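Readers of this paper often ask what the protein records in our data store actually look like. Such a record has a labelled line for the sequence and another for the backbone structure tokens. Nothing more is needed to write down the fold, since each code stands for a local backbone conformation. The remainder of this section carries one protein's record, kept here as part of the documentation.
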Amino acid sequence: MDILTQLNNAMTYIETHIDDDLALTDVSSVTAYSPYHFGRLFYYIADMPLSEYIRKRKLSLAAMKLQNGSDKVIDLAVMFGYDSADSFSRAFVQQHGVTPSVARQTGVNLVIFPPLTFQIKIKGVQAMNWRIEEKEAFEVFGIERIFNNDETSKVPEFWCECHKNGEYEKLFDAAGGVRNPDGHGDPREDGACVINAVCGYCEPGDNTFPYMLYALKNPDSNTDGFKVAQIPKATWAIFRSDKNDYIGLEIPTLFNRAYSEWLPSSGYDKEIGPDMEIYYTAPDGKHFEEVWIPVQKK
């Protein structure tokens, strides 16, 4: 079953069970993906976490019921999974800008999110620099953090935290990184930074995903105090950004375009496995990034 069909099946499931206490695990069950991988796929294609989409749909339906019927606020709160009328009203105001009681009035503007449907995007305005590579299994080690599936936006804070508390430098040294005279780390021979990132290399639990700042493990690596993970043999779709004066800015865009523009029409399916972020420094001092996504031929 292709990726768009699976996404649309998931949206149909949500609409059918919109009155239930929907979780990512429930929605992903009608696809071939694990909760983590489906949540990540949805996030980059829809540009929002699945939990946010479900909340917006519930509050949209609640608004229509208020305009078209005589449902009590407490009944709607219970119907759409809120603990109390107060918590429902706060969420309602956040989306619609008015209270549920005001929403009953004629002429009030409300913010309605219709059900999503997924189709192939035809853009073609900006070329994509991509390639397919086969790579044998390898090991990495590094600094791990477990995030909730709707906390992808917190990953940059994790990077900053590791720089500030010295963990990044410890990992760099444990990997045998070499510093130039100004104290900055030299890239590897292929231009890649010593420290990169990987996510989704294991299933830590429902509604969570692992993310690691990693270095490649070799016989001389000092892995004491670090998480070690096996990256399986895979076929990788690799997407490269243009060069930039700053590092790390293009990763979200690369993932978004890879998932939403390339994958649906590529002839490949997303394989279960980790996604990787590789950072490079070019000889001219500029930077570029790559995202690696495991795929399989349809």
